[in-house]
Task: structure prediction
Amino acid sequence: MALAIRDVSEHDLDAVLALNNAAGRSIIALDAAQLRYFFERADYFRVAEIDGHLAGFLIALREGGDYHSPNYRWFSERYPAFAYIDRIVIANAYRRHGLGRIFYCDVTSYAEVRVPLLACEVFLEPRDDVVVLFHGTYGFQEVGQQRMGSKKGRQVSLLAKELPSYAYVCTTWLEHGGLPDLPWLAERLHSAPAASPRRLAGERRP
Result:
């Protein structure tokens, strides 16, 4: 089994959309325009490819964006710098292969050299104890709860994980010109207009 974790490409988008919308109630459905927003704006958008087949994807955004998710806004109102995992989806045929852990290791590696906090949420209605346990064993702690969108929206648990490596990276590199110019530390290329300087790899946000 040949596994590759790589940045999403435009030719992946149809398969990503189909995979997202087949995931059931645990994942909010998307349309093509919403997926295009992520393709153009997400700081982290990577897919897992197994033997040439799309097996899953993870999307994460840093603070300071114009994303209107109530959960992203919740973190924006409380934390000055973070990476927010918006969604992770694994195809049914590739579940129980450890891809969730592989993605979380990869997004942690991305985040810990840029921000002090990794954030996400899990649905409590319906509650999935396997998902709650997964996040707990991976070091996430609940920092709040809210209902999405309205008083009748689904209850979510808002989770955060402190990234202890960030302090060292910050004082060693980010405060002295930025991260080393290495391929594995580079930001993904966006198809949107040029990102502001604070989105370049290794630079601190004001």
Q: What stands out?
A: Residues 99-111 form the longest helix (13 residues). The beta strands are 3-7, 44-50, 53-62, 83-90, 117-123, 141-147, 155-162. The chain has one domain: 3-199.
